[in-house]
Design a protein that fits this description.
Blueprint: E1 21-23, E2 35-38, H1 40-51, H2 56-63, H3 67-86, E3 90-93
Parallel strand pairs: 2-3
Antiparallel strand pairs: 1-3
Length: 94
């Protein structure tokens, strides 16, 4: 039995471009840094809940997913951003 297909998600945050964005500590070349990958749906959940101060239910409605999915995306995004900031890693948005 194969897993279910991923439900399409609506992403409207400003950094939703098709190309990769990288945020890194100044003064260190990207080739010398470990990278933390932040996916667009995680960024969208972070933006809606923390940037626009929406509740998870409201963010889920905007993204077209359940509140539980938003909660998981938000937890993953917060952990990745914190890891990148504290451990001086590059944060790559894909």
């Amino acid at each position: 039995m194969s897993p279910r297909n991923k439900k399409p998600r609506t992403c409207t945050c400003p950094l939703r471009a098709e190309y990769e964005q990288v945020f890194k500590p100044a003064g260190t070349p990207l080739g010398q840094l470990e990278q933390v990958i932040l996916y667009h749906d995680e960024l969208e959940a972070l933006y809606l809940c923390d940037g626009e101060h929406l509740r998870q239910e409201e963010a889920g409605e905007r993204m077209g997913v359940s509140r539980g999915t938003v909660q998981r995306l938000l937890a993953a995004a917060r952990a990745k951003v914190a890891q990148a900031l504290v451990t001086n890693k590059a944060l790559c948005i894909k």
